[in-house]
Amino acid sequence: MLTQIINGRILTPQGWLKDGSVILRDSKILEVTNCDLAVIGAELVDAKGMCVVPGGVEMHVHGGGGRDFQEGTEEAFQVAVDAHAKHGTTSIFPTLSSSTVPMIEAAVETCNKMMEDKNSPILGLHLEGPYLNQSKAGAQVPEWVKNPNPNEYIPIVEKAPCLARWDAAPELPGALQFGKFCAEKGILPSIAHTAAEHSDVRAAYEAGYTHVTHFYNAMPGFHNKQGYKYEGTVESVYLIDDMTIECIADGIHVPPTILRMAYKIKGVERMALISDALAVAAAPPDAQAFDPRVIIEDGVCKLADRSALAGSIATTDRLIRTMVQEAEVPLEDAVRMASETPAHIMGVHDRKGALARGKDADILILDDKLKVRCVWQMGRIIENTLF
């Protein structure tokens, strides 16, 4: 099937293109051209002057539509994936917070199976824990947080070709060895839920931890010890130029002013936007979080005792709006941080994250309020309020 999108502002890797068109054939982008003359045999889609941008690549999300990836079932995975797709997430890395080994094994089995479909938006599994610092565990289930154990993680990896990323606190005993092992297996090790200081962060980076999980959250910044000042994880990460970060851009987990600062320091190519969304994102009003300790209050998920934030209710479109409308970042950069940059970080930019010839046909149309009006995932329309 041939489709031609015309009359839109098209975001290409080279910048905005006006009076052009995007031509799709089946699941691929056939061409992005500055010509909007109708192609013979193509179904025309009029973007009505709106923005045509690449679909979102969500690299850290726990659930949506009332379901959580920790459930480990195909049904739960599909409901959550579909819920986020309607809000602009065309590629997704399902995320498990700290879990038991049987829970991880169930999610691995499901993810392995669903990824057999080459048109699936699921690109790999992301494990956030359980190898985290107990003092920075936040909303993680404390009983499941522990130190890395090769007798545990090696067998998991051997059964998990789907595993794309695994987070850990690098200061824990055995964490550097764990990071090296993951990196050697092509799995991205990421710094998370940590009390790491500069020497820890530097050692972690050299061991393969090139990325940082929900930057600013569950990690220390500049602080005092007995009257002396010390850099925290945050400043240490800023000092390593090539280390990439991700930020929960709901405007609550990280204030818009700090989102703007992170963008100015790290730049669009080293900062990705994530939702860190729980099951209650893009969900019916009566939906509950998978973790019974979690409540929704003030537009965010919290532990019921208000001791920690526990994830967001955000979606890809909200991340982009927050960056543009509150953090005052140019739209093209906000979109790139939700698509191109995570695609690079996760090693899928050969086919995802940009509107270019030969890439997968993952495309959004956004109106002037940055609301999603149409979504193509692998060339298939899955949301449409445009026509």
Describe the structure.
The chain has 387 residues and is of the alpha/beta class. It folds into two domains: 2-53 and 357-384, Urease, subunit C, domain 1 (Roll); 56-345, Metal-dependent hydrolases (TIM Barrel, Alpha-Beta Barrel), CATH 3.20.20. Helices cover 25% and strands 27% of the residues. The protein has helices at residues 74-85, 101-114, 150-158, 175-184, 198-207, 233-239, 256-266, 316-326, 331-338, 340-345, and strands spanning 2-6, 9-12, 15-17, 21-25, 28-33, 43-46, 51-54, 56-61, 63-64, 67-68, 89-97, 125-128, 163-168, 188-191, 211-212, 223-225, 228-230, 244-248, 271-274, 294-297, 300-303, 363-366, 372-377, 380-384. A hairpin with a 2-residue loop joins strand 2 (9-12) and strand 3 (15-17). Helix 5 (198-207) crosses helix 6.
CATH architecture of the largest domain: Alpha-Beta Barrel
Low-confidence stretches: none
CA radius of gyration is: 20 Å
Largest sheet: 8 strands, parallel
By helix and strand content, what is the structural category?
alpha/beta
Mean pLDDT: 96
Give me the CATH fold name of the largest domain.
TIM Barrel
Number of domains: 2
CATH-assigned homologous superfamily of the largest domain: Metal-dependent hydrolases
Strand order of the largest sheet: 8-11-12-13-14-15-18-19
Count the helices. How many? 10
Strand content: 25-35%
What is the β-strand count? 24
CATH class of the largest domain: Alpha Beta
Give the overall silhouette. Answer: globular
Determine the N-to-C terminus distance.
18 Å
The helix fraction, in percent, is 25-40%
